[in-house]
């Protein structure tokens, strides 16, 4: 029996992964990751890295980040405390959904994760204070392959649900997209 319900959010793109805790009088047990259950949703290969981020203040935006090929990665992102509006943007130049975004609320209460395949930029906005995210990565982080899009780029038209209270200088000063992006 699968401990997940997986829903495709965009053809060939991200999936919403809802975890199903098993509980009794003692409490609950929740499977966070199982490659057997996630391969059909696009998990590629082994898990090579796991990361935790802590964001203190509601309204903070982090993103839109990705690794350039050949270091592109699949990510499984889940919220262990608080809530976020999680966003994935298609940056595959040959895709019919190029520069289209999908989003989902991830929270400690809704047991929802987002599985993001290679070719997508990822970011989120915190909906609460004190948010903890856990990321599973199919590839090792390569600093030289880091890249990103400006979270407020009009071409992306990301519908951030709240006013933005905090954004890093790195994200704030990313250039806006030019017509040659993806070519």
Task: Explain what the structure shows.
- By secondary structure, this protein is mainly beta.
- The protein has a single domain (4-172), classed as Jelly Rolls (Sandwich).
- The chain is built from two helices and 13 strands.
- A six-stranded antiparallel sheet has the order 1-2-10-7-12-5, with no helix packed on it. It has a five-stranded antiparallel sheet with strand order 9-8-11-6-13, with no helix packed on it. The protein has a two-stranded antiparallel sheet with strand order 3-4.
- A hairpin with a 6-residue loop joins strand 1 (4-8) and strand 2.
- The chain is globular, with a radius of gyration of 16 Å.
Task: List the SSEs and their pairings.
Blueprint: E1 4-8, E2 15-19, E3 22-24, E4 27-29, H1 35-38, E5 49-55, E6 61-67, E7 75-81, E8 83-90, E9 101-107, E10 112-116, E11 120-126, E12 131-137, E13 146-148, H2 169-172
Antiparallel strand pairs: 1-2, 2-10, 3-4, 5-12, 6-11, 6-13, 7-10, 7-12, 8-9, 8-11
């Amino acid at each position: 029996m699968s401990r997940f319900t997986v829903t495709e959010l965009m053809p060939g793109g991200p999936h919403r992964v809802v975890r199903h805790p098993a509980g009794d009088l003692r409490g609950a047990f929740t499977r966070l990751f199982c490659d057997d259950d996630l391969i059909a949703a696009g998990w590629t290969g082994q898990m090579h890295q796991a990361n935790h981020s802590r964001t203190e203040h509601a309204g903070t935006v982090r993103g839109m980040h990705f690794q350039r090929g050949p270091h592109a990665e699949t990510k499984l992102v889940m919220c262990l405390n608080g809530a976020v509006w999680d966003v994935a943007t298609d940056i595959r130049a040959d895709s019919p959904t190029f520069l289209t975004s999908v989003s989902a609320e991830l929270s400690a209460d809704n047991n929802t994760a987002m599985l993001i395949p290679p070719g997508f930029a990822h970011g989120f906005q915190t909906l609460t204070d004190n948010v903890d995210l856990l990321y599973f990565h199919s590839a090792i982080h390569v600093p030289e392959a880091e890249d990103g899009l400006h979270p407020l780029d009009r071409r992306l038209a990301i519908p951030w649900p709240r006013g933005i209270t905090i954004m890093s200088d790195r994200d704030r000063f990313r250039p806006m997209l030019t017509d040659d992006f993806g070519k």
